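Dear colleagues,

As part of the handover before I leave the project, I'm documenting each prediction I ran so the next person doesn't have to rerun anything. This entry is a single chain, and its sequence is reproduced below.
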Amino acid sequence: MSDIEQYMTQLGRSARQAARAMSRADTQMKNAALEAIAGALLAAEPALLEANGKDMAQGREDGLDAALLDRLALTPRIIAGMAEGLRQIAALADPVGEIADMAYRPSGIQVGKMRVPLGVVGIIYESRPNVTADAAALCLKSGNAAILRGGKEAIHSNRAIADCIHRGLEQAGLPRDAVQVVETTDRAAVGKMITMAEYVDVIIPRGGKGLIERISADARVPVIKHLDGICHVYIDSEADLEKATQIAFNAKTHRYGVCNAMETLLVAEEIAEQVLPELSAMYKEKGVELRGCETTRRLVDGVVAATEEDWATEYLAPILSIRVVKDVDEAMEHIARYSSGHTESIVTENYTTARRFLREVDSSSVMVNASTRFADGFEYGLGAEIGISTDKFHARGPVGLEGLTSQKYVVLGDGQIRQ
């Protein structure tokens, strides 16, 4: 067995032992840990910024692109947001131990379902050091142990955040090994982690498509994942154009390097001439490159011809593809063909059309008159998210506390025997 295999096996054994302790931890202890970690993060702001500065400098030297550097950066505002996310999770109801659907059977027994932790959650992620705090918090509140493997580009930031997590755990009387950050940047650690079915119950990858495809192909542990964030906004013929303009502008330009940014704008032909020139001018002022269909190019100067590949591309950059469609049916056909199943939004004042869109579009989040940027665990009231799932089992959409638990049947009897 190699040194990496031995190291990861030891992490797995420690996590499995910690998971047993976490499954026994009561809500008060878990909340105390979360509050202590939040306080530790705020107190350690100078150290966190110093550690992040090392990662940012190395990232620039290594030629990381703007989107990755944006994800990597820590600021006082982001650190405060991490602490607030922890406190919001502490304020949420604890799902562990919840019993639902309890009912008497003809035999006299009662049968129901109890919500329980998954056990050990392995999270593999790139760039974003704030994921370290978010993932740890969600795993702790849901009674799980976590093994966190961040990218090498954020190693100093992740270690600094892990120090705060460990201080909070120890202060609350919970095992330090309930959250372990993989110290090595050797890629072999990932290969071992995703095959340790005896120690790890689920893997959640957060990162680029290449990472997620590799993990999905090689893992022997169940994976909660999404590959792409090809999100759409459709402006209907009965949209409020002021709403439509603001929503479509925000969905693309609020942040570029995120999975819930709009990548394709669909516009009903009846109102395209009214909305596209103004909206396109706003995009161009922000430096967004526009790639459009023939009708879009006729209505707006300076638009590059969109290719078939553009409709199926997650840009994660200031690039937007635009297509003029006949109506909501053609918009939904386009979404069905090219969407990654992440998030789609319709802008319309027609209640019936909105209801059809909600019912017929098969994505993990479907919205009416709202920016796709709201497809986020924090915005959904989950406190934070551990990832977005575009799978249909066992969790879908932003994965919060409930997505990190399972259910087991519980049976209450009073001496019944089966006849």
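The mean pLDDT is 94. The two ends are 53 Å apart (CA to CA).

All the best with the project,
I.
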